[in-house]
Design goal:
single chain, 554 residues, alpha+beta, 5-stranded antiparallel β-sheet, 5-stranded mixed β-sheet, 14 strands, elongated, disordered C terminus
Amino acid sequence: MWKDTLLQGLIALLPVFLFLVWYDRPKRTRYVPHFMAIVCGIAFLLNAKFAINIDGGLSSDFRYVPLLIGSLYGGMAAAVILTIEFLLYSGTEIRNWWEYVYLTVFLLAVLVPMIRVSSTFRQGPRVKRLKIVLLFFSAMFLIFCASFPVWYHGGPAAVLNNHLYDLSVNWAVFLLALIAGTMFIELGFERVGLQNELQVMSRNYRGEVRRLQLFIDQAPLAVMYADTTGIITHINDFTLQMIQPTVSTEVLNRHYRVFARLMQFEFPSPFDKVMRGEERVVEVLKIRGRTVYTVTRAVRGIPGQSSEGILFIGHDVTELNQLKDEVGRMERLSLVGQMAASITHEIRNPMAVIRGFVQLLNERSSDDQQSYFRIVMEELDRANGIINDFLSLAQNRIVEKETGNLHDVLNELVPLISADANMRGQLIEMRLCEEASPLEINSKEIKQLVLNLARNAMEAMSDKGVLRIETSDREDAVELRVTDNGVGIPQEKLERLFEPFFTTKTNGTGLGLALCLSIVERHNGKIQVESKVGEGTTFIVSFFKQYRMAAAKN
């Protein structure tokens, strides 16, 4: 009896053991229904083949273990296949009408609910799944107990007691086999689930490592890491470019002192300070002529443990310091400019008084002295013009603009420019486009801009020179070109042409072109210079249309 029961238990658990051996990779999950249907179907037939015969017309086997486990864990497809197999095999064993009744009750009370539950069985928690298994076991046990009087053919009380004992042992072993099989199946699914989670975590970890490595390598920061022995285990590309582009083989896997020497650190270096016990060292260092803000600190794992290594991070702040110095210089220049503007504004009043008295003395002086007074008044006018230009440049005031046409301004200036050109023996060529788009301009400042450019061009030419003024209406801007065929400007002077007080003329002030640049910038434009020595110079002023449209919307 015990041998037969043990054999039945082993056969019933055979699918479970095979499942644990076969189901060891997440990619086999899709084949679980097929596997469970096959191996549980075979175990079902083996259990039925080696059924335990008990006197009194009773028999016992564990065919319900593979039937139940295969149906629940194999899904609906496996449940349907095993149910059909159960019905076909049980149909061959029917001997009377009562067995038909038993099979029908078993089908309706166990098999049909099992098929319905199988599709969602594995979605719930483990405790819920174990309760469902025990619930089906209870249903089968109750059906058996209810049908026992019909199955049993009768006999003495002692024989009945022995039969009940044997059946109790069989059902107890059946329950243990069912619970053991369920737990082992759960163990197999849990193992593969953990493998799947591990693979996902590994992929995420590798992805994070790659992204972090890419960030470290591409970030404009010098990053270096050394282990507890001082050996450099990582150094990013920016650091190598900072010290020497070809030293990767000389630095990596070498002691940090090699790196400190290449970075021209003074002794003790930040690494030495951290190795001596300091937690964090922050210093601004000069590295190969660059200013670098550095942070060197010990890397620790669990709080309280010893250091795991040294991390060095450096940020090149050379340009930031230069910008800071430039801002400071501009603030000082702005202050000086404001003071100079105030002073020059006050100078104009006594100069006006001086000019008035000089003109009065000129009227009362003899003819031979009037030329001297005229020279004094011309120089006073020249000084007053310089002061006016300087004030216009220093104030950088906001001007009122209105919609106007560049051609209208140029046509008003033609007589004045032509008169200056005739006095110098030069020619004027006006090449205006057919139609120029309207712009938001200040006519007075545009006139000052054109006059400055035209007079600079005429002063750069000798007699018989030709001054050409052109306009063109482009897609994004209205363009003004002022061209001369004078001596030209050397390339080294073009870069400084718009700096205040820089001039290429012997008697120039260096404020005219600076004032032109200021006017163009106030009109949201751009001014460029093209020049060739011995051929001439062209000033190109572009007034962008998008600013006009934006101003119209506002």
